[in-house]
């Protein structure tokens, strides 16, 4: 439970302090996403559920390899399943994994130097 919650400061929102009990769990989340295939799977699932074969095609991996990654993502509660007959469809458990991946890609764009593409889009939208 969050005993250090203060309504007047964003930095003290539950789980966002350096001494948070969730820091180690957050590191595990980053570790789960420290694999290009799993990041690609998260990206492929942003628009809705897909079967293993559809995901395999989308990320250019074998269905067996994708199944192994999906099992890990499922254990980490990043994806969930829906069964339809003998087929299994995967979808994101919530928006957080997708947001983490998007933010990581935005950060990666910064490493290229110059003004990242995602900043151009924001500036053009507000003009």
From TrEMBL:
GO molecular function, one term: DNA-binding transcription factor activity
Membrane recorded as keyword: no
UniProt-listed Pfam families: HTH_5 (PF01022)
Domain of life from the UniProt record: Bacteria
InterPro entries with a match to the protein in the record: ArsR-like_HTH (IPR011991), HTH_ArsR_DNA-bd_dom (IPR001845), Metal_resp_trans_reg (IPR051011), WH-like_DNA-bd_sf (IPR036388), WH_DNA-bd_sf (IPR036390)
Sorted UniProt keywords: DNA-binding, Transcription, Transcription regulation
Annotated HTH arsR-type domain residues: 18-112
NCBIfam families xref list: HTH_metalloreg
PANTHER family, alphabetized: ARSENICAL RESISTANCE OPERON REPRESSOR ARSR-RELATED, HTH-TYPE TRANSCRIPTIONAL REGULATOR KMTR
Official protein name in the record: Transcriptional regulator
Source species of the chain: Cryobacterium shii
UniProt lineage: Bacteria, Bacillati, Actinomycetota, Actinomycetes, Micrococcales
């Amino acid at each position: 439970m969050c005993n250090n919650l203060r309504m007047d400061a964003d930095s003290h929102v539950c789980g966002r302090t350096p001494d948070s009990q969730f820091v180690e769990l957050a590191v595990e989340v980053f570790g789960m996403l420290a694999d290009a295939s799993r990041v690609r799977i998260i990206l492929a699932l942003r628009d809705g559920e897909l079967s293993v074969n559809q995901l395999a095609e989308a990320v250019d991996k074998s269905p067996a390899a994708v199944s192994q990654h999906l099992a890990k993502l499922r254990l980490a509660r990043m994806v969930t399943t829906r069964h339809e007959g003998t087929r299994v469809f995967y979808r994101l458990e919530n928006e957080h994994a997708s947001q983490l991946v998007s933010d990581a890609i935005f950060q990666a764009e910064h490493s290229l130097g110059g003004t990242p593409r995602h900043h151009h889009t924001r500036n053009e939208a507000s003009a």
